[in-house]
Amino acid sequence: MKRTQNIKETLHRLVNNEILTKYECKDLITAVGKGEVNEYQTTALLMAYQMRDITGSELSGFREGMIELSKPIDFSEFDTIDIVGTGGDGKNTFNISTLSAVVVAGAGYKVAKHGNSGKSSVSGSSNVLEHFGYTLTNDQDKLRRDLDQNNFCHMHAPLFHPAMKYVGAIRKGLGVGTFFNMLGPLLNPSRPKRQISGVWAPFIMPLYKQVFEDMGSEYAVVFSEDGYDEISLTGGFKIMSNSGEESLMPSDLNMTTVLPLDIFGGDSAKDAADIFLNILKGKGSESQNAVIHANAGYAIQRFKPGVDVIECIKEAKESLISGKALEVLNGFN
């Protein structure tokens, strides 16, 4: 791509609180991801967005640039969904998004999950899946076979985003969250048609809404009002989707409110793995199961946007009760 902007001028505009266009952001992040921007300028870029809120259009532009820099994966023959949270909520729940993804796959839907190792919890999606024998790879043929034969594949983010090497050390050195924390769940290199994403703060919801609408996705963005980046059932929660915005309570799903302790993920990777397996074996608590049913149900609804979520939750329950979800886990190799 021919560089159409001067990096110093762009940074000066950001310092002066100017809003960049979507294309300018795409162009800028492409320069960063190709190593054309020095570490001081990259630091200035990250900190500029600490000084003011990013817009949905800017986030969308950054996403497009990062996707074009990623290792390409073609799953166009499949109708897939990604189920992911931003992390950063500091709640250390069990692996709700990953378990929900396995349950959705058990219900017969194709899940192309994108994730990483744990950052705000003791065990991230990549950690727990690898523990159960899933091979972390960027080999397209292997991932396509996983989808075809087991309805599930997992893409470990570091294997697909070489551009991140130019910002990783800087982000770590800063020690504070940056807009890259918001970008992560949007960077699935296979570009799934459907996505459900949990966010750690309500201000992110309209940003994701714009990004997903720019992508043409069938989407849902979820936020629990007590700070969880998923439907925690610990209180009220919000859903923003193609059909609008809703504020709901667990009772609206015919479920009861659960306690934070009920969905705690444990103190070690072993604890996380034990909880994961127990739930899939049908030994999960009523609260653990309910949270999985809710999140998986809303994911299934992305395939059936006109169907009441209660019906979709029934499909999620059947996947778990019947052992179909456990079969997905047993299919890891």
Features:
7-stranded mixed sheet; globular; Pyrimidine Nucleoside Phosphorylase, Chain A, domain 2; 45% helix; 333 residues; alpha/beta; 7 strands
Summarize the structure.
The protein has 333 residues and is of the alpha/beta class. It has a domain at 80-159 and 193-330: Nucleoside phosphorylase/phosphoribosyltransferase catalytic domain (Pyrimidine Nucleoside Phosphorylase, Chain A, domain 2). The chain has 14 helices and seven strands.
Structural summary, described in words:
- This protein has 333 residues and is an alpha/beta fold.
- The chain has a domain of 218 residues: Pyrimidine Nucleoside Phosphorylase, Chain A, domain 2 (3-Layer(aba) Sandwich).
- It is 45% helix and 12% strand.
- A 7-stranded mixed β-sheet has the order 3-2-1-4-5-6-7, sandwiched between helices.
- Helix 10 links the parallel strand 4 and strand 5.
- Helix 2 runs parallel beside helix 4, helix 5 packs across helix 12 and helix 5 crosses helix 14.
- It is globular and about 60 Å long.
- The termini are far apart.
- The model has no long low-confidence stretch (mean pLDDT 93).
